[in-house]
Design a protein that fits this description.
Length: about 280
Amino acid sequence: MHHANYYYGHAHILSRYCRLEDPLDPPRIRGYLQHGWNIGDGMAPGVPFIDGSPLLVWSEQTRRRAWSQGRRDAVVVGSPFAYLEAMDAADGSEREGTIFYPFHGWEGQQVMGDHQRLIDELKAHETGPITACLYWNEYKVRGIRKVYENAGFRVICHGYRGFWWRDTDREFLVRQLAELRRHKRVVSNRLCSAIWYGLLAGCQAAVYGDPMVLADADLTFGGEPRLHRQWPEVYGYDPDPIAGREIAVSELGADILATPEELRTYLGWTDAPWAGLAPVPA
């Protein structure tokens, strides 16, 4: 199993959905599972592939983009977050405030921008309490956490995605879903997975503010200008939540989720022992 298949506990969520006997120890996935939303073929730039291994992508749109690049082994399976959202029903608690996801880098690339400007803009346009959710690097290493705490925001981190099969937080998306469901709105300064996740989880969503700059960004697929041009429905201070949710369902593959039996076939888990539990809720 490629180590990125474990990111954010994706393999564990799919193992649970497939009703495997030990969902905390998922078997090897046959292929490369898309681990984040992007505007390319769903895979991270520069990942070396073994010829013939399937690309397990979230949506039909992503599959078409992969095909346009000559990658004919793309298979649409749906996003792990969509499976999680389908399995875990909301408890009906009242929502309040906004959860904000500032655009972040990762260990190999840092983001350059003015967080105070974002804070000022958020305070001018959001009502109710604001939660800032930071990537672990900004939360623990770069000192950005203090900027948001000093602004009076509640500051959280969903956890560490994992790397090279180590330190994977399998509750990452479980924690993220719970946080999204306690907020009315989800906001980011750049269109990203969290915006689509929030829309699927019932939030109003908005993308606004300085999109910032990622060091040595790969602009092969068009970068931030293309995001704004192709998905204008989610930009601005108060976009239409109905239109946004329709797009989120499509981008996350929530409308084409496989049955547990089908998904075990896609992932190469047909020989894995399964528990034969009650069907997953529709």
